[in-house]
Amino acid sequence: MVRDPKVILASWEVVMSDVAVLAEEPVAEAELPSAPALAGAVAGFLVLGLCAGLGASDPGTAIRAVPSGVFVGAGALVLTGPALVVGHQVMGLDARPARLVGAMGDGFVRAGRLALGLSPVMAFFSLTTGLWGVILALLAAAVGAVGFGWVASGLRAVEARSPRMDALVFGWGALSVLVALRLAVDVARLVMG
Whose CB has fewer CB within 10 Å in the chain, the N or C terminal residue? Predict the structure, then answer.
């Protein structure tokens, strides 16, 4: 073990110069979705839940249905996103973590827009049938599956479709599906009272 202060100081200076270089690298603005885009995605999920709540028989269930899509969609990303970033760094892949987060954010924004687009379908079934809970589950699953496809495509593009990245996206996807299913069961229990 080296205990020479000059060697330790020189090592420290090398490490700090690398940190300074990393800190100076600009993160492209296009990598991360804008705050209004993220707010629009959240609004899309909220509107889908609101439309589902129109078919509920009591106001409490209707109110609890509103945030259901956000809890599952955003919850799965928030809970599994760090595992993806850490796995990416451990595997020694090249892309900056901000690009991974940007790909996840972009997929979330697109999924929120899809949820908003499916809201009239949800409203129709909520108002004309008693199947609002089933339709909400089906539409949420569809939005989740398509949203995951967008996220996975963006993540694979970040690393130029490397086999290691494909394996990481597959593993992360499996984890995300399990977490989303668990969240969906909990949210369904919450909404149904």
Answer: N
